[in-house]
Structures are given as structure tokens and as C-alpha cells.
Amino acid sequence: MKQETQVLKELAKRVMEIARHPVQEERRELWRRHNSFVTTRPLIYVRTFAFHEILEKQSLHCEDPFYRGYEVKLREMMFRDTIGDDSIIEPWVTVDAVYDPPVELRWGVRTSLGEKPAAGGAAAFNPQLKTEEDFEKLVIPSHRINESVTRERAEKLCDAIGDTMDVHVNRGPAFLMWTGDISTDLAKLRGLEQIMWDAYDRPEWLHKVAAWMRDAILKVHEEAERAGDFSLVNHQNQAMPYAQELRDPKANAYGARRRELWGYMAAQEFTTFSPEMFDEFVLRYQLPILEKFGLVAYGCCEDLTHKIDYLRKIPNLRRIAVTPFANVPQCAEQIGREYIISWRPNPSSMISTGLNEEFVRGFMREHFRIFKAQRSQFDISLKDVETINHQPENVAKWVRIVREEIENCF
User: Fold this and answer.
1) Per the structure, how many domains does the chain have?
2) Could you tell me how far CA 347 lies from the centroid of its own chain?
3) What is the Cα–Cα distance from 359 to 331, expressed in whole angstroms?
4) Which entry of 65, 113, 174, 265 is 20 to 30 Å from 330 by CA?
5) Residue 322: which of 378, 276, 264 has the closest Cα?
């Protein structure tokens, strides 16, 4: 065990050297300006990539599952430093609080997909609300932290690396991001196909469930805020959360108000719903939650091309996702400079099957012309990269190519 903690300590030291480099503050200032409509060069963010193809399990030194998770995290932070994008390496690592009941029982019943038949494969929905009567099984949630188990986890990591880098305990509510956008959990609880039928067969009942979830999430957020458990690490925007209007992220800075933070939601499960039905069955229930936050980012992988007019209802909306499935010219024309575009080129054509430099350059030039014509404020997010074709060097190469095209165009 001592050997494993020494491994973590050495990794933490190397991460801290990266986190203290002046380039991190330069990137913070770029994101502060960019997210507040001050013109900068378009920023690049490699959000998710197939790190399992870069770090083989047999190369890990920690056997303890808890320590192993942080060994992977620290090594990923180190690899990120080699990519050359505009992501920020922060000088802390996070331990998530353990909730009572556990997160997977956040609604009183198990909220998860079925078993995956293969690692990294797909899973079928395993809904718990099979009948309308099953709604009575749901339990109104509360913000409750298992303090003893949370303290034990935090102390274990602090004992290993606490004298090297900050350990932030995430005490924020369990209902944030995918657990707090209504859409994700509604589909998990009821079934993706079933909510499509419900919108026609039992719309009043579907409204009842969505309204109940809205009120429950608001209740939990209010409890967490009163308890002082929101922190400045609880920003959520699928980018770097620095903005001139909000307080900077900071480890162990508790007592934050929602109005000081980025809020985030998506409605991927409502992709095939018409704009009117998207508004009726999910957005109207998300709005009261989002309105409490200082700034809001909306959208993940869904096509929002025909839903932007409805998103304008969000008074503090700042960022909109424009995904591989969206009509980019139509989105750019509608958004103009009213919101920041989080542009997400398709990872399959960018890097997942190899890196075609000529194609990437042409693709970037084509889309840069679209954004320039609309004077768009945009950043480029490479995300959901399930494979890099076992060529980790291509991640940095892709960033270099994109940056060169930015320099040539802007």
C-alpha cells in the first residue's frame, strides 16, 4: 500500500508542475473572455477521447481500486498536457461525496440501463416505471450525504497526495448534469421508446411525471444550497467554465450560490420529438431549474437545429451545442452572435478511423467560412471519441492541424 501511495504522490507532483505553468492562467483568461463575448481566437477543447487505448491496464501500478482510479486520472491529466489544446489542468483532484441513498437509487428505485453484454458495448433500457401505477414507487429525494464514508474516502486520498495537491470533496447535489436534466432519468425510468408513445397515449401522465421530477430536483438543489454544499467546482458547461460574470472554479470553496455557477442541461432523449413537443414535455420543466443558475450551456449530442427558437426562453443561456447531426449553416444563422456556439465536429471523420490531414483541413476551412459569415463566437470541442484507432499521437496532431487552420483563417 505504501508503494501505491508513493506512485500517486509522484504522479501528483508531476501534475502540479503542469498545473502551475503560466500557460494555464493564459488559458483561463482566454476562456473568461471567450465565454463573455470578448473576441479571441476560436478555442479548442478535446473533451473526451479513448484514453483506455493510451493507458493499458497492465501498465498501472496501483492494485487498490480506489487508488487505481486516481492513478488513471492523474495519468490522463499528464497526457492532456501533451495534446496542446486549450483545456486547463487544475491544481486539484476531486473525491465525490457518497450519498444516502446511493446515487443509483436517487429516485427510490434503481435508475440504470440493463447489463452490457460486452465491455464498451450497448445496453438496453431496463425501466422501472412499467405501468402508470409504478409511479407510486418513486420517492421524493433529499440532499443527504453519508458523511462517514465520504470522510473516509477523502482522508484516504489526502493521506496519499494531500501534501502535494489539493483534494476537493464534491459535496454538490446528486442531481446535476445527467442526473438533473430530467430527460436522461425520465428515459431511464420509463424507457426511451415508451416516452415517445406516452406523449401521444398518456400525455397528462407524462406531464405529471416530468413536473414531479422538476419539483424534486429544485428541492434537492435548494437543500444543497442552504447547506452550503455547492462549491465553485460545481460549474457545469461541457467546456472550461471561466467567464467574466462568474466566480472562477476553486477547490474546497463551498457556499456558492447557483447564480454564481454555470448550469447545464440537454435533452438527447427528445431528439426525435418535434420542436413543439420538446418544448411541451421537457424544456418547460427544465426552465425553472436552469433559471436559478448564473449562466447556462445547453445541448450534448442531440440535433438542436429546429429547437433554437425555444431555447431562447432560457433567460441566462450562453452556450448552445452544434453537433455532428445538426445543420451547421442553419444553426449559425439562427444563433449569430447572440449565443456562443459549442461546435462539435464528428469524431468518426476527425480521428476515430485514422487522421486524414487533407480532409480535416478542408472540413475546418469550410466551417470556418460559415462561422465567419455569421460573425459567430465559437469554440471547437472534440468529444465522444470512442476510439482513436490505437494511434494516440493523432490526438495532438489533430489539435495542431486545427490550430494551424485557425491561425490561417482568423
Assistant:
1) 1
2) 17
3) 22
4) 265
5) 378
